Amino acid sequence: WHWNKGIFCVEVQPGDLLTFGTRLPGNAVTWLVMDDTYAFQDSFSVIGYPTDIHDISMRENGNALLIGIDARYIDMSLIVPGGNPNALVQGLLVQEQDENHVPIFQWSSFDHFEITDAAHFVDLTAAVVDYVHCNSIAEDLDGNILLSCLALGECTKIDQTTGDIIWRFGGLDADSSWFTMIGDPLGGFSAQHDFNTFEPGLYTVFDNGRFHSPQVSRGLEYLLDTNSMTATLVWSYQEPGLYGTHLGSMQRLPTGNYIVGWGDVQGTTTFSDVTEVRPDGTEEHSMRFVDPIIESYRAYKYDWEGQALVPYLMAEVDSINSTAVLTYNVFGNDQFDLYRIWHGISSSGLDPLFLTPERQVSIWELPTGWNYFAVSALDSNQVETGLSNIDSVFVNWTGISSENTAAATGTVLYPNPASGIVNLLVNLTENGSIEIDIFDITGRMVLSTGLIPVQAGGMCRAVGVEGLPSGLYTVRVSGDCPEFTESLVILR
Known about the structure:
The protein is an all-beta fold. It has 1 helix and 37 strands. The chain has one helix at about 405-410; strands spanning about 5-15, 15-25, 30-35, 40-45, 50-60, 65-75, 85-95, 105-110, 130, 135-140, 145-150, 155-160, 165-170, 180, 195-200, 200-205, 220-225, 230-235, 250, 260, 275, 285, 310-320, 325-330, 335-345, 350-355, 360-365, 370-380, 390-395, 400, 410-415, 420-430, 430-440, 445-455, 455-465, 470-480, 485-490.
């Protein structure tokens, strides 16, 4: 989970695909899809409604199950005493899109749940009422849809065709449940996050445990009998005193082991962030982030064999030693023995520096100004990959700064990600000209404006990118300005 960095919820999906969410300008959300070479394949957003950040689930046929926000202004004074007459009530919108992004199923909580179904901790008199708060979506083994609805205190199964509710499985916080709870010493889950299945009748839940006394988080598995309408706790795991305030996940593996992601346990290095547990309740292994401020949104274990075709490079700075630190890897591919480091004072003029077997190097005595780097990899037969992405650092010999900033270059790119138009704000101290070039992930130029005259001062140039497919690109601005490069994500 890296919401502040704009990347979150990386998951393996059917068809050897990876999905992850990214944040757009204005905090809008979209889901990106990559294949097993880490190349962008597609993107999904809810059509007609804001996309929710919590989850995406893809079916074997390539369809995407998405969570949206159906927000409506409602006079809550007509529903509850003291209700706000102009409350913004946030409902749940479920939308299934086919591989061509055509919605083939849409479902709103307003058609199936009463607002007063909300759990006891939801303030129905507030100006904003989030009465469902869906935090996971999954496909059941019969193709129907599973939802975790935190603010209702329940997990819900809905019919994929009619939208009818098949059952409602309530925990400790729910006012009602269609099931009778058996064998759970705490009376059920509380403020849960994550609901899924592995085999018929068995369902996993991550129980954050907000309203347990004392507060404690658990990984749970229930057997739901839809004939007797009973929910029997068949497996549970907890670490004494461990409480994840929110987030978290629970996964059953084909081996029979379980993966428990404990969510937000930041601020302590005492407890695990992720634990793999055997069926008998003994620990297989656990992991903990070194930095206690890092939190795990969800944690899953997959049999994944992705292989990148070119290295990925990160150029960072060591201001104490006045060096550029390059870190790179060809993800999932261990056949390479050597790496060639490329350098230039412009992104279009890179020259080879040296070969190294290391995956991290430091470089000294760089020229003042922008320095651009790339990496290629060589196998034992000296077969060389294409170049990695180009990354850069700025050297002024009073310190080194990473990333491109308007202060250093006089150029700003927005929006990013973009869909139809990308704007570049360029500042020149005197009249001149610039050229804007866009390169795809292989380094091939896919768009060029040619030379554009620019008056002294600021100019905003709009560049149409509607003809480019979704993916990761590099934008370069050159000419009578400090050369500027920045990665650009294009989404469709």
